[in-house]
């Protein structure tokens, strides 16, 4: 890892070991979700782990699920050892690209715990690659995971429980309103999630279901950046200097926004997108190297002052 990458990693480090040993405490009251049943997909690591941890600290029974059940079991053991008023439990191994897996997961939760009050769609995936190099299969895999998978979890939660009992849903998206060069496939699918959320919030409001999005900026987690290898180092080198906050975000900063949207304090909020990005939405992401030459033909007369 480069020197910049190391500095950012040390400043923003956020893995399960760190959370378990540091004196972190939610800013919300500790009985906020007492008696509530929550599902956090992808809750075994990264942002999902931080969200599941905070919900458990506030009294909820939190079901976490992903394809890697062993990782979820380790996360649950780590958090439950802290003695929170809530707890983390592990659902069946679930691939959110599988309709059957999702249906079985929601059925399991309702049968076992009797409710599904809160849902956080955190599972997703992407890889760094120039758009011209992305294969049809690679593009489809990301869209099926991030967009279709999120829809299927929302649909099953609504049809199996929330239609009749109400509930609150938060979808985790990523991206920048200026685009995400290098991860176009992910940005496109997450933009779809945000528009889907805007539609669902209107369809489901009569069932007392609120549904919102949290759009994180560049959040550093060990489990996230280690998957990118050298590309992750390049990403860090390019991005940090452009962010108005001059640092990456923490998973707990995302979790706080999620908790607020799930709570009764946001009872008049639905269909919204809350950005947790240190102002990153207002700057272009400098991930594309552009040569010092004119890239578009000129129409009309261009002053020499307008050229680089």
Tell me what the structure shows.
The protein has 308 residues and is of the alpha/beta class. It has 10 helices and 7 strands. Strand 1, helix 3 and strand 2 form a beta-alpha-beta unit. Strands 3-2-1-4-5-6-7 form a 7-stranded parallel sheet, sandwiched between helices. The chain has one domain: Rossmann fold (3-Layer(aba) Sandwich). The two termini are 33 Å apart. Helix 5 packs parallel to helix 6 and helix 6 runs parallel beside helix 7. Pathway: Lipid metabolism. It comes from Nitzschia inconspicua. It is found in: Peroxisome.
Q: Which stretches of 5+ consecutive residues score pLDDT under 50?
A: 1-21
Strand content: 5-15%
User: Count of helices?
Assistant: 10
Using DSSP, what is the number of strands? 7
Could you name the CATH topology? Rossmann fold
Describe the structure in brief:
This protein is of the alpha/beta class and 308 residues long. Helix content is 43%, strand content 12%. The chain has helices at residues 3-12, 16-21, 46-57, 69-80, 99-113, 136-165, 184-203, 222-225, 230-239, 251-262, and strands spanning 37-41, 61-65, 87-90, 118-121, 167-172, 209-216, 273-276.
Element layout with pairings:
Layout: H1 3-12, H2 16-21, E1 37-41, H3 46-57, E2 61-65, H4 69-80, E3 87-90, H5 99-113, E4 118-121, H6 136-165, E5 167-172, H7 184-203, E6 209-216, H8 222-225, H9 230-239, H10 251-262, E7 273-276
Parallel strand pairs: 1-2, 1-4, 2-3, 4-5, 5-6, 6-7
Which labels suit this protein?
Peroxisomal_t2-enoyl-CoA_red; disordered N terminus; Rossmann fold; 7-stranded parallel beta sheet; Short-chain dehydrogenase/reductase SDR; fatty acid biosynthesis; 43% helix; alpha/beta; 308 residues; fatty acid metabolism; 7 strands; globular; phosphoprotein; single chain
